[in-house]
Design goal:
Radius of gyration: 22 Å
Number of strands: 0
Strand content: under 5%
Length: about 60
Amino acid sequence: MLDQLACLQDHILQHVHKKLEALVISIEDVENCMERVLFDVQPSEIANTYHLLSPDAIVSGPPL
């Protein structure tokens, strides 16, 4: 019985460890995106993105 509990505990810890690793990777991805926005994005890119996200563009869709 103790062996089964130890095995279950190991399995749970491995699962939690994998989830934490995925979370760290996700956080690093967000940080990289934020750095890109802060340092690499040109004003024209921001204007283009804003245009794509405007309500008119969302309703009508992209130009054909």
